[in-house]
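Before drawing any conclusions, I needed to go through one protein's amino acid sequence and its backbone structure tokens, quoted below without any editing.
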Amino acid sequence: MQIHEFNDFCWDKCVEKTGNKLDSKTETCLTNCVDRFIDVSLLITNRFAQLLQKSAGI
């Protein structure tokens, strides 16, 4: 749920108006949001993997 809230926050922060094209400022802002989303997703995935390994006794 927090990831979805983060996505909403990024959209609201980055996109001032909708249209056929994104200006460079909006595109850069959204790219940064996507990069942070990927970072968080990888962090969560790695943490779950660590917990699974720990619970399996590996």
Residues 2-56 form a domain with the Helix Hairpins fold (CATH 1.10.287.810).
